Known about the structure:
- It is built from twelve helices and 15 strands.
- The strands form two sheets. A nine-stranded mixed beta sheet has the order 14-13-12-11-7-10-9-8-15. A six-stranded parallel beta sheet has the order 3-2-1-4-5-6, sandwiched between helices.
- Helix content is about 35%, strand content about 25%.
- The protein binds nicotinamide-adenine-dinucleotide.
- Nicotinamide-adenine-dinucleotide binds near residues 14, 123 and 312.
Amino acid sequence: xxxxxxxxxxxxxxxxxxxxxxxxxxxxxxxxxxxxxxxxxxxxxxxxxxxxxxxxxxxxxxxxxxxxxxxxxxxxxxxxxxxxxxxxxxxxxxxxxxxxxxxxxxxxxxxxxxxxxxxxxxxxxxxxxxxxxxxxxxxxxxxxxxxxxxxxxxxxxxxxxxxxxxxxxxxxxxxxxxxxxxxxxxxxxxxxxxxxxxxxxxxxxxxxxxxxxxxxxxxxxxxxxxxxxxxxxxxxxxxxxxxxxxxxxxxxxxxxxxxxxxxxxxxxxxxxxxxxxxxxxxxxxxxxxxxxxxxxxxxxxxxxxxxxxxxxxxxxxxxxxxxxxxxxxxxxxxxxxxxxxxxxxxxxxxxxxxxxxxxxxxxxx
Length: 365
Ligand SMILES: NC(=O)c1ccc[n+]([C@@H]2O[C@H](COP(=O)([O-])OP(=O)(O)OC[C@H]3O[C@@H](n4cnc5c(N)ncnc54)[C@H](O)[C@@H]3O)[C@@H](O)[C@H]2O)c1
């Protein structure tokens, strides 16, 4: 297999999940890392002792022996870093979601779409969780014309981050951008149409209220509902709860069409499961045609090594298998800059809708 030498821009929790997964793929190596935090650098050196450490993004980009970059810096850094990379190199990039946080950065993304001459893949790992991938693969043909899609995520609160960047909307983009861009991406992909308008409600009920950062209380929401009408009149709904870490299934995604219903069940992240992993419920896809008593359950078991290599049900590994092909075979990325941008815009619409208590039409953004 052709060798792919990766350079990392920021390498905290998620960057290290990428490294653990790349280490499981033949031909992938970690060539260089720019990570400003000393403690995180020490963790990276343990995981990838072969990597060279660069003192800045500029210094990282001076290293010739790179075939691809992975951006796993905080959300608010992505757009500036994409701009800086494009001014110095033309390398394939996997940029973690969300692609940007500030509407002003949309121009950067549009410019990249026009003129950056290498693939840019946006990290939408949820597409690659085995039961979700099975649903994406089967739902169109099985359900017929999909008219309803509901996504439920019941999970743990936001984790602690370097510099606590995820505690404030100004740095993360807000919960519906930061966290839920994954779900808006899935809605567009499964329904196969663009959103028309969005309504939402949300709030901060229980999490982070007793924390203080320079005297300020975090302003990130911990629960909410979003409903979306698509241009083909399909309708989708998201229910997010971030004070439900006891849930054995963390995500449930249900598509219903003229012919039947398909529902994917994703188990909780291995790292937070208190028991032996064999006690986690099995990941599965349930197919229920309208004819009664003909339900089928397809189990999508995930290798234990993949479950413990990250918090995302093996998806980081499967995404990298595909991204590596994008690098070596120069094929178009499966998750494009346009996809990344639409997921952010839907998140921004949901943020505005809940704040202003009104429907937000996508053409307002
Ligand atoms: N796709 C997913 O499911 C998923 C899951 C978790 C995180 N993420 C994304 O991954 C990114 C990183 O999140 P994380 O959880 O690893 O956070 P983190 O705080 O653990 O890691 C971010 C790292 O970037 C470093 N950093 C800070 N400023 C930087 C800069 N200007 N340039 C380069 N590095 C810088 C920090 O020192 C830190 O080590 C975020 O965009 C986040 O949204 C995606």
